[in-house]
Amino acid sequence: MRTLGYYAIALQLQAVGASEAAAGGGILEWVARSSPLNKIVLLILVLFSVASWGIVLHKSWEFRRLERQTFSFLDVFRRSKKFSEVQAVCRSLTHSPLVGVFQAGYAELNSQLRPVGGEATVALPSSSAQPNLRSFDALDRALLRASSVEQNKLEHRLHLLATTASITPFIGLFGTVMGIVTSFQEISATGSTNLAVVAPGIGEALIATAAGLGAAIPAVYFYNHLTNKVKLYLSAMDDFSLEFLNIADRNFTS
Amino acid sequence: MDSTTDILRARVAMGDRPGGTYAISLAGHVGFVLFAIAFPSGLLSTEGADVMDNVMSISLGGPVGASQGGQTALAARPVQEVLPLEEADRPQWIQPPAPAQPEEVVRTPDAPRRLESERVTEPAPEESRGRTPTRGPELREGTALADTGARGLGVGLSGGGLGSGGYLEVGDFCCPEYLGIMTQLIRQRWVNQQEFTGSVMMKFTIERDGQIVNIARETTSGYLALDQSAERALRLTRVLPPLPTRFPEDDLTVHLNFEYQR
């Protein structure tokens, strides 16, 4: 019985040695040995991953800059006495979505208050000779348009993250399934079901699934993270629009 | 053209150009691949895992134990056997919690001591006494007599445990409950089912500490086997409980009749 047991151990050692020899030293060699279809799948996944990480980096930096400029803009807006002063500052804070909303509202105010053939200086709060706003609704619509434009800018390219998160696991799974099909074809061709023969093919196939998940997982996380930030900016723009309308209502309507 | 529209168009046109970040991302991926090339087995390495450990856990058989090289038997007995059904289904008594330890009290020598006689003990009210639970109307023994074939044990001694097979002669003994225990113990060692019928009268003495001495046969049944069976029952019993304290004498002589049935 003991002799039989040691014989089994010897067989196991032989099999492990064979599989390690088949592994050859790394996944990259498996990738190099894999079928052309598997290589195409891996290339697509790498492209998706590069694009999604590029978007993540870009949006993260953009939102950081945008947050800084928004903070500065709100500070200036609440300390200024005239919209023209705020407008002067806007040229250095162009990335903030609130600047876009403010510029649209300010342009609408100017167009309504400007006397024919001249330019009016819109002043905050009280002025001895108060100009009158012709259409308060038009100002509201202008602010809404600007909010919509800024929302589109904020959400620009985020859809690629969602796409990456959705389809890369399926692409990887497709590569795996095709790789396993190839492995079974090799089994039928060689007539051997030894693990040392089957394992490399299945390992090569599984690399595609791993790559798909590797692309999808960060994409899901950062999509949720950035979408949440967009929602916060939308809320800030709504708040700013109402604040702007209140100021206009107080100062330019009779 | 509306000036607001111009501004919004300018904002849209301003756009964002993430070309630089795409390049950084590509460089990061290339760096990851280079890292994988430089350390081909760095991320998914299984080197260092003890291969022999995995191998030794698989065996074709052999007894269990370190002396057998860690082999496990293919057809070995299960490590944990299932309890028999009646053992498993037997209800387990729930042990009541242990009583709390009494608190330690430090004696104060100056405190006035209360005499035992000063303590007033009031009887508990009648309502506080527990009632024995009943299961319906109480059954009382009737006074009708029925002939069961049983024979008495000498002077008014009832039962005794020998059933129809024993006859006891004890004179005016004070403690009938002791005789019940005695006959029960002797009967446990007496085989009353024999090939022949008959009776054997045995005489023996119970000492104060319960030892049976002076065993003698008073009457014989005519069969040696029956006589020896009665004597063997007494000798096997050997020791009985000590005599009751109410019994004034140092020993008690008993005449016991063994009646055999087929």
Notes on the structure:
The complex is a heterodimer of chains A (254) and B (262). Helix content of chain A is 82%, strand content 0%. Chain A has 254 residues and is mostly helical. Chain A folds into two domains: 1-25; 34-252, no CATH class. In chain A, helix 5 packs antiparallel against helix 6 (136-155). Chain A starts with a helix and ends with a helix. Chain B has a domain at 166-260: Fusion Protein Consisting Of Minor Coat Protein, Glycine Rich Linker, Tola, And A His Tag, Chain: A, Domain 2. A four-stranded antiparallel β-sheet of chain B has the order 1-4-2-3, covered by helices on one side. In chain B, helix 5 packs across helix 6. Residues 49-78 and 150-166 of chain B have low confidence and may be disordered. Classes of the chains: A mainly alpha (254), B alpha+beta (262).
The secondary-structure class of chain A comes to mainly alpha
The oligomeric state of the chains shown is heterodimer
Poorly predicted runs of 5 or more residues of chain A: 1-25
- On the 0 to 100 scale, the average pLDDT of chain A is 82
Order of helices and strands of chain A: HHHHHHHH
Q: Count the E strands of chain A.
A: 0
Strand coverage percent of chain A: under 5%
Order of helices and strands of chain B: HHHHEHEEHE
Query: Gyration radius of chain A, to the nearest Å?
Result: 31 Å
- Count of DSSP-assigned helices of chain A: 8
What number of domains of chain A?
Answer: 2
Number of strands of chain B: 4
Reading off the top of the CATH hierarchy, the class of the domain at 166-260 in chain B is best stated as Alpha Beta
Distance between the termini of chain B: 133 Å
Largest sheet of chain B: 4 strands, antiparallel
How much helicity do the residues of chain B have? 25-40%
Low-confidence stretches of chain B: 49-78, 150-166
